[in-house]
Request: fold
Amino acid sequence: MKANRVYELRVNRHRGGPDSIEVLDIASMEIALFWDLLPHQTRRMARALRADLAQMDPAAFLAKWSRYQME
Reply:
């Protein structure tokens, strides 16, 4: 099973402040991963996340991207 069947990507663009990206667990609708980003970073990050969601299994996706999560 691919990660995009388990997780949903939400990109939130904010005027005058940082954008945010959330990866939600579809079953529980809880946030699995979260980032605040500068507007110029958002598109590249979202593109990379979408590619990995479509190609990787859920455990590998979470393991890879949790290293980069903002705390």
The first strand starts at residue 7 and ends at 12. Strands lie at 7-12, 19-25, 31-37. The chain has one domain: 3-66.
